Amino acid sequence: MFVDSHCHLNRLKKAPTREQVALLLDAARARGVNHFLCVNVCHSEFDSMAQMMRGLDGVSISAGVHPLDIEDGVDIELLRRQASDDWVVAIGETGLDYYYSKDSIALQQQSFEAQLQLACELNKPVIVHTRDAREDTIAILKNGQVERCGGVLHCFTENWPMAKQALDMGMYVSISGIASFKNATELQQVAKKIPLDRLLIETDSPYLAPVPHRGKENQPAFVADLAQFLADLRGERLEVLAQQTTDNYFNLFRGANR
Fold this sequence. Notes:
Shape: globular
Structural class: alpha/beta
CATH topology: TIM Barrel
CATH architecture: Alpha-Beta Barrel
CATH class: Alpha Beta
Strand content: 15-25%
Helix content: 40-55%
CATH superfamily: Metal-dependent hydrolases
Distance between the termini: 11 Å
Number of helices: 9
Radius of gyration: 17 Å
Order of helices and strands: EHEHEHEHEHEHEHEHH
Number of domains: 1
């Protein structure tokens, strides 16, 4: 059994309706993918995303505001209400992105800090996006005592020292299809070093389809291809990697139902 620990099912062009999402999830189950975390990125999409996903077998959701979707900041009281449902298993995705947006650094940091504080308050893990912001991301996680709620660096593309600092705080590190790209040699070395009991796998669909689907719209079924790539890369049996990453997911996202 595989888990797609991070996807955006409400943004799939192939599945703009609930019925079409259900068909894509059936296709994923045919490849052994049985649980899906649909991740929220902004206040305005939460209600429609939750309505589309509610009742779909094996789907959990998060509530959060992405660093590139903060606009005027995060409404923490609105987020608290959105995250109060037991079905919402995490806060995020939140974090820092200095690659695409350097003119909103202060606002990004404030948003990240507020969402991490809420995650600790609600005892729900935090999903962290980080790009070109290594030192500030680690500093906020340390100052915010992320170990109180737990969390994951999702779609990890940074270096081993950063991954090691996150692991030392009890966090998980999630690898996406980027690791299967031919030029991702540094990331592949990082992926080999992550302890198996702290590793998660994800599609981040509809983005970043792994080889051999690169260039196509990503979908949850493709997490099986990523898992096979990582098992080969790490010299592990696919069944072992599948079982451990699934256990890791449910250990971190405590509110998710198997």
